[in-house]
Structures are given as C-alpha cells and as structure tokens.
Amino acid sequence: MNLQPSTLGAEDSYIWYPTRNGIYSVKSGYHSIKGQALTPASNQSGFDWIKDVWSGTFSPKMKTFLWTTIQKAIPLGANLQSSGVTQEIKCIRCGQRETEAHIFFSCEFAVKVWEYTHLTLNIDIASLPDVASALVAFRNNRCLPPLGVTTPLLPWILWALWTARNVVIFEQRTYTVEETAIRAIKLAREWNQAQLTQKKISTTTQGSIAGLPLLGLSQPPSIGTRIIKTDAAWDKKTQTAGLAWIASEPPSSRTTQGAKIHWNVASPLAAEALAIRNALQDAAASGITFLQIYSDNQTLIRAINGKIFEKEINGILKDIETLSSLFVESSFCFISRAKNGLADSLAKSILRTPLCVMGRPTG
Ligand SMILES: [Zn+2]
C-alpha cells in the first residue's frame, strides 16, 4: 500500500533495484548474487571510498591519484618489491624502506613539507600509517586563511611529494622542501579558484535535462509568476503525511493555500513529492501559466530537475513531469527550511487534525 504509483497513467519501466540509479551493472549483479550489500569497501578505521575519495572536493586527477595510491598501485619501492619488480626499495632521500607511510608522512623531507601547511587540526602526521587513514584523520581539517585554500590540502601535498620524488629519479632534479610545499598549495589554490569561476558560469547558463524544464533557479520571479511553497510533515508510526502548499503572486501579498492528508506514505521524500504533485494539480486547475515551485527537500528538487534518479518516487516524478508540461514555464527550486515556515506549520497542523485519524480509510 505504501507504493505510490503514477496517477496520471505514466508507463511502467524496468529498473534494477539494488542500485540507486536503477541501472544494472555487472558489479551490482555480482554483489546481489553473493548476497552482499552494495557498499563501498571500507576498513576498520572508517575509511569510505565515496566519502573520502570520490566525493572529495579536489580535482578528478587527485581522486585517481588517491585511488591508485590506496590500491598500492603507485610504483613506490615497497609496492614494486611486493609485486616482484625490483629489490631496490630504498627512499631516495634517506635510504629507509620506501613505503607509503614513509614517503608521504614520516620521511624527514615529508615532515618538513608538512610544516609549511597551516591546518586547523593538530595531527601527528609522521605517525600516520597510510593514505586511507590520513584521509580519515583529515576529514575535518582545513587550511587556515593565510594559504587561501578552502578545500582539503592533503591530496595536493601527497601529489607534490610524489612528483618531487619522481623528478629526482627520472629527471635528476631536486625540489627543495619549500618549493614542494608551495607547489602543493599553488595547485590547490588554482583548482579552488577555478571552481568558483565555474560555479558562477553554471548558475547563469541553465539547460534542459531529460525533458524537464530546468529554468533560471537563481532568477527572481517575473510578474505574473505564481510562487508555490510546498512542504510535508510525516509520521513514521502511522505512515501518514500532511501535505501543504501556499501560493502567492508577487507583488500582491495575498496568499492562497491548500493542504491534504495522505495515507500509506513510506518516507519523508515521498511525502514531499506528493505535496508538489498536489500543488501542481491545484495550480493546473486554476489556469495559471507561469509557475515557480519551492521545496525544502534538496534531494527531491535534484530528482525533479533530472540530476538524480529516485526509484522510490519514480511514479510521482513522472506525474510531476506531465503536470509541469501544462504550464508555459515552470521551475522547481530549493528553499531553506527557515524560509518555508508557513507551509511547514500548515503541513504539521493538518497532520495533527483529529479528522486525519478519524477519516483514515480501512483496508
Ligand atoms: Zn626518506
């Protein structure tokens, strides 16, 4: 009963349940046969491939570099020795065994490079056992303002240490401690600044994804646009949701509102999606043409704008897509909870009404 299919006749489609995006992959097939959950490999210290590497705020090149390093696939002495390539495994600077921990953290050269960084947390870097543990230890560590780097510095330092080692071996050149540290900070800062510029560009150019209108999310609404703020309150125990939407048409301060109880709702996400579907049905019936809908559920807004796939609410999303095509222009935007107070309290109050309990259909 908790399934919320499309009510507007959207066609069914095949999805592969074990993956989030609903698309089959051989890996997920393998894991489901083996009866394992499809989770990223992690070790005891809480290292998480997705959190610590793939979603990290550093360049794709750094991600690949970290991946190679953690997989012990970078050609440093200890790795080469264990794969039988060479017997020569000494650090080029101090002659100790060249391991991951040594060249990145405990070698005197590395220790001195780390001294150039100014970080918010005091970590005993020289005793870090490997890169994965370092990523975990550095999770909440940031550079202090003078460096001008707001994203993690760790990958860039590792990269600078690694390339400084390589130029000694392959180009017979030496970077000083200072040059190596500055190089890492410079690379991090350059990438940082490039992201800021890119962000500015992407908020001014909007496209259309998967046939869904993806309109100027940051533009102020033009006159004659109906603004609808939606919200839902959800009761886990009874699987009931209170849906609410509040419409206004600036510059007029007059608002109209709608609210509804919905039973058999399995999650807050489904509840919020149902609130938008109801608000759209309401708006479509009133014959308006320009529409801006707000929700404080970021996942939902991303799903509606075609950026992620949510199998749980697929039917509702298809209805939202169908309904939004009835308007000349419709856009779906995120709003912070603080700015959505009216819809929030309306949703909560409808969920609390005695009618909600009495009127519950049976069966
Ligand atoms: Zn060394």
From TrEMBL:
Q: Show the GO MF annotations.
A: nucleic acid binding; RNA-DNA hybrid ribonuclease activity
State a single Pfam family of this protein.
zf-RVT
Q: Which residues are listed as membrane-spanning?
A: none
All copies of domain RNase H type-1, residue ranges = 230-349
Domain called Reverse transcriptase zinc-binding: residue spans = 24-114
Under InterPro entries, the record lists: RNase_H-like_dom_plant, RNase_H-like_EbsB-rel, RNaseH-like_sf, RNaseH_domain, RNaseH_sf, RVT-Znf
- Protein name, UniProt field: Uncharacterized protein LOC108844565
Native organism is: Raphanus sativus
